[in-house]
Design a protein that fits this description.
The chain is mostly helical and 203 residues long. It contains 6 helices and no strands. The longest helix is centred in the first third of the chain and has 47 residues.
């Protein structure tokens, strides 16, 4: 009986390890792709945001949609738990933000900045929650994710303050996207290094 229990325990541990490995691999690809897309978007928006015209608004709508797709992929790769529910919430939130930005675009820079800022605040808070839930060493400690989410929360507040002022501007959004992209790529780098270490240990 004890042998059967030991075998069952070993199988359970092996399955848990494999699940963590699969999730880590999915997150690495997701974070890297998300980071590269954010930087590419920032470069495109830096050239197109002089006026809140159709091209700029289209790009602004696309940005939260990138986040929505990322949240969907993350949701599918994440086991049941708090972080899975939060990623689902963030995906829905990002879709709503994209729609709201599209509507706000008719009103000029201030309404767009208000919506983008509000989305950044809530999305940043969700990112922090997920990062805290994934703080274990198997997922690279998640400190880039936590920093990125915290900065998003704070910057979103400043965007709303700026939007209420006399000279709202969309200039800073390219910097916002670039910073987010860099943090995502750093997180992917940490996950990749963790995976290599584990492979070395088991080789």
């Amino acid at each position: 009986m004890s042998t059967q229990r030991a075998t069952a325990t070993t199988r359970t541990a092996s399955a848990t390890t494999q699940a963590a490995t699969d999730e880590r691999s999915s997150l690495l690809k997701l974070y890297l792709g998300r980071g590269l897309l954010a930087v590419a978007w920032a470069l495109a928006f830096a050239r197109a945001h002089e006026d809140a015209d159709a091209v700029a608004i289209t790009l602004l709508v696309v940005y939260p949609l990138i986040d929505a797709v990322s949240s969907l992929l993350d949701h599918r790769a994440t086991p049941e738990g708090t972080e899975r529910r939060v990623t689902a919430f963030n995906g829905v939130l990002s879709v709503l933000a994209a729609l709201a930005i599209g509507v706000a675009g008719a009103g000029g820079e201030a309404p767009v900045l208000h919506v983008f800022g509000a989305w950044a605040v809530v999305s940043g808070a969700a990112q922090v929650i997920v990062g805290v839930r994934r703080r274990g060493p198997e997922f690279g400690r998640q400190w880039p994710t936590l920093i990125s989410g915290g900065l998003s929360f704070l910057v979103g507040i400043t965007y709303n303050i700026q939007a209420a002022g006399d000279h709202p501007s969309l200039d800073a959004l390219s910097v916002y996207a670039t910073g987010g992209g860099v943090w995502f790529m750093l997180q992917a780098l940490l996950l990749g290094r963790k995976s290599r270490r584990l492979r070395t240990r088991t080789a």
